[in-house]
Each structure stands twice: as structure tokens, then as C-alpha cells.
Amino acid sequence: MDAFASILSAEMAKKKSATAPKSTPTDSKAATNGSGSSGSKYIRRADIEKARQEQYLADQVRLESERAERALKKRKADEEAAAERERQLEKRQRLRDEKERARLQKEQEEEEDRKRKLREKTGATGDTDEDEGSKKDGTDQMDEAAAVQKLRELNEPIRLFGESNAQRVRRIHRLMGVRKASPPPLSGGELLIDPKNVTKDPSYVRRQLLGWFRLVVSEWQIALAGRDEALRESYQGRQATTAMTQAIENLQPLFRHLQKGDIDEEIFAKIVELVVEAQARRYVKANDVYLRLSIGNAAWPIGVTMVGIHERSAREKLHEKGKSAHIMSDEATRKYLQSIKRCLNFAQTRWPPEDPMQIMG
């Protein structure tokens, strides 16, 4: 049975091969092209990963270029800002130099004017009168060389136009008389103020105040001059120098009032109290005195104070004596009061207190 089945299957295979058409090379080529051109339904994971990596690299390149562009713009902006700051600093320095030159020129013109007036004054009298006056008061005993040496010591011009030796000697005596009339500056222990002398000898207390403020200013200048070059040329260093220069300029009206003795009594008493506390290194109390001196403790006007013919209640407290805000008096007073505060701050740094509780905040 098995042999019959095998023979039958062999015969059937022969018949099929005989009846099937023979395939040509053209048909096989077309079949091959047809199978190759048909699209696949699936995408390989490797292709997806490769495409993702390419997209990531492209994004990174784009982000890096944008980052570099932003950094370039920022660097250019910083350079322009630095150049602008440098131009502003140069402009300010140029303005300061011009102001200093104008001040020096003005001082020189005033000195020349003073010398001219002095020449006119000395040249108004004749030599005969000068000689007679010199014989009477004995000023002809100084020879020309001694007169020239004395004038150089006094930092005065040694010879004026048309001036004789007798006139020169009389000028020396006049200058020495002026110098002797002005009291010598105080220093050391003489600067310690006794509050009892405010009523006993106010002129001496005014000299003590002048000496103390000038001592603080001189120490301030020495401290700033001893800084490093880099710190002195930095922004903070220039600010400190400007603050010191401004404080010295603003203190000049106070110095003039103290020299003339026409300072307000209330302001004078408060400044004396402030300096006494500062000399004792009690800077917190000195700051309290400064606050009472500057803004006072009187009631400040808020809102409308006069709305008709009747005064509002407690309006008289706005003008209580001894409680007014002197910093609002005028511009010069405000400036030298602020300069006093700066001197107080430097004094705390220069002469620190032994008690840490006395350090101002």
C-alpha cells in the first residue's frame, strides 16, 4: 500500500511539472521588483533611536549657538556699561579738576587784589612820613636782610612795588600785630571741654570746639591718605574721599560762626553737649544729642493746621522753645549738622569706646 501511494504521488508530480508554464527571466525580475517596491508595515527600533539621537544633537547645536549669542550680547552690553561708567568717572574727574582750578584761580585773584590794595595803602603815604614814624617808634632798627627773612617766615611777599625798607618794616609789624591778636590753636588736653565753661567762658569753649573738629578732620584725612592705591581708586574709596571733602566744605559755615561768636545759643549748647559725650567715648548718648539737635522732639505738623480763625488744639506745641528741628532751619545749617554726624561716625572708628554698648548702630 505504501509503495502504491509513493508511485501515485510521483506520477502526479510529473504531470504537474509538465503542465506548469516555464518562467522567463523577465517575469522573475518583475516579481523581484514588485516585492522590493512594496512598503513595510513596521519600523525598526534602531531607526527610531537613530532619528531621536540626530534630533537631540541638532537641538543641542541650536541651543549652544543661541547660548553663545546671548553670552556675546551680554558681554557687549557689559563692556558698553563699563565704558559708560568710565566716561562718567572721567567727566566727574574733569569737572572736579575744573572746579579746583577755578577755585585756585579765584584765590589767586583775591590774593593779587589784596596785594594791590596793600600796595595802594602803603604807597598812599610818603617816604618822609614813613621815615619820621619809623624814627618815633624805632622800626628802623631792622635792616633789609632781616626784613626779607622775616617776611619769608611769615609767608608774605618780600617786596611790594615802590615799597621802601621802612614801609616793609612797618608792614612786618602790622602783620605780626595781626598774628598776635589771634589766639593760638588748642591741642592735646586743652581740647577737653568742661560744660561749666559754657556760661563762664564761651569764647574759650568755641575755640575748643574748633580745635576738636579740626583734629577730627585732620585724623580723617590721614586715615584716608594711608589707604592702598587699589582701595583709594575703587568706587567705595572715591565715595569715602568725596564724603570727607563734602563734610569739610559744609563745616566751614560752622567754623565761621564759632570764630565770630554769632552761633545760635541753642545749637551751641547742643554741639557742646555732643562733643563732650564724644570726647568721653559715649557715642550712643552723643547720637541721642545729635537727634535732639537735628530733628528735635517737638510735635511735627500733620495735615492742615489753620482752617479758620480758630486754632486747632495743641497747636502751640509746634513752636515750643528748645524742641525745634534745627535741621529744617536753612540749607547751611542742615549741611553742617550732617557733617557733624559724619565726624561723629569717624570719631567712633578712630577712638572706639571701651564699652561695646556705646557703639552706635
Automatic annotation (TrEMBL):
The keyword Nucleus applies. Residues 27-40 have a biased composition (Polar residues). Keywords: mRNA processing, mRNA splicing, Nucleus, Spliceosome. Residues 149-175 form the Pre-mRNA processing factor 4 (PRP4)-like domain. Pfam families: Prp18 (PF02840), PRP4 (PF08799). Residues 1-143 are annotated as: Disordered. Residues 212-352 form the Prp18 domain. It is found in: Nucleus. GO terms for cellular component: U2-type post-spliceosomal complex; U4/U6 x U5 tri-snRNP complex; U5 snRNP. InterPro entries: Prp18, PRP4-like, PRP4-like_sf, PRPF18. One of its GO terms (biological process) is generation of catalytic spliceosome for second transesterification step. Residues 44-53, 61-107 have a biased composition (Basic and acidic residues). Belongs to the PRP18 family. PANTHER family: PRE-MRNA SPLICING FACTOR-RELATED, PRE-MRNA-SPLICING FACTOR 18. This is Pre-mRNA-splicing factor 18.
